[in-house]
Amino acid sequence: MMELIIKFAYTGSVNMTESNAQRLFMAADYLNIVELVQICCNFFEKMLCADNCIGIWQLTKTYHAPELHLKAFHYVLSHFEEVVFGEEFLQLSAQDVIDIISSDNLNVRQEAAVFEAIIRWITHEPQEREGYTDLLLSEVRLSMMPTEYIQSHVLSNKLLTDNLQCQAMVSEVIKCRDRIVGRPRLPSAILLAIGGLNSGMALTNVIEAFDVRANHWMNIRNLSEVPRAYHGAAYLGGYVYCVGGFAQVFIATNSVRRFDLSTRTWQEVAPMYYHRANVSVTVLNGCIYAMGGYDGHTHLSCAEFYQPETNQWLQIAPMHQQRSHASCTALNGKIYICGGFDGNGELQTAECYNPETNQWTLISPMSSRRSGVGVIAYNNHVYAVGGFNGTNHLQTAEVYNPHTNTWRNISSMMTLRHSFSIEVVEERLFVVGGITGITATSNVEYYDSETNEWSQACDMDVGRIALSCCVLSDLPNMADYTIPCDS
């Protein structure tokens, strides 16, 4: 280690590997070589994974690296359902387990994962750890579990059957279930629904945030922003971008505004080359792509992309067809756009853009014509949902396999709709709002590909069509966009 440190002193570089990184970090900390300590911390941060994050978290308790310590702990919380199956989790102290499972930021889709984790930790060394059962169980949010799971898995567990404190704790939750509202964990991602037309067909600037864990929408006050509909929304670099659409008196705009999630303020950025309402927007390789749309006179085939670093829009090759009311998504380094309206009729066609060659390629057409469709990448496939076929509003859905260039049908939505928004949150596909015949709806439902079933979610506060949604993740102020824990 001294040889490496002396070479670093002369050359400013060091040959760091997985096998020597920890010893080098300890030596650099002991000798107070701040620059080398930081290099080691950067190395550890890049190496963070489910198998080593607890080890790095524990190491930085002993050695002063507060930033890495927080990042390692955040990694443990964010990847908890993977971390608990590693050897490092089984070696934790009871207090360390409590520190993890008591956090609001613990990322678990079902609270059952927390219960099963503590059982796994206790049964690894039952004689030494059984005494912590009631202490650990008190940090599990039992009221967030289904009653059926509590009765079939919790009450019947051998560690709990002979523990009177645990039995009393669980019985109290079951008895008071109607009066107790559980405090959900903070979600790993938030669904933001922006703007649109309300049930009176008036432009609105309403923004609502959906907490998938609490199944609850929260209104984000946004009185200062101009109302907008038939726009695109994208989350990139900590900002939400609103792209094009109709603003004020139903005039297509080329303006682009971005929303700072920490200050809740709006800022104008560079406008697009073209005015675009009914525009299709997605994010790929750190850029925002805007395709097609309607400029007030023509349905467009042109497309362009925005670079945040230079605050500049650049044009790309035009699509094969004019498309407004289409929808698009990014998958495996390419962009897929489906359906829409070309001025003459609703479209069944779809095409794919390769940014490396700047070329569009027509792919197999969908089974239905779909204008006002929702398109999203989900489970390495492209999903096309709902829309309008020229005669009827649709509730059907289909999925495209890029490897076989084929479409297949999946279960239909519970509600027919078009001009809605679609996103994937925590491995489920959500459809939000839209028009269901003659009126704007606040209805929300989600699809689970494992069961091929649609289920109802909590309705928005406001019925809206032509809104746009995006998904926010890794926010430092995530709690600002979720239901307050004391509600």
TrEMBL record:
Key words of the record: Kelch repeat, Repeat
Pfam families with a match to the protein in the record: BACK, BTB, Kelch_1, Kelch_KLHDC2_KLHL20_DRC7
Protein name: Kelch-like protein 10
Domain BACK: 53-155
Gene source species: Parambassis ranga
Presence of keyword Repeat: yes
CDD domains assigned to the protein according to its UniProt record, in alphabetical order: BACK_KLHL10
InterPro entries linked to this entry: BACK (IPR011705), BTB/POZ_dom (IPR000210), Kelch-typ_b-propeller (IPR015915), Kelch_1 (IPR006652), SKP1/BTB/POZ_sf (IPR011333)
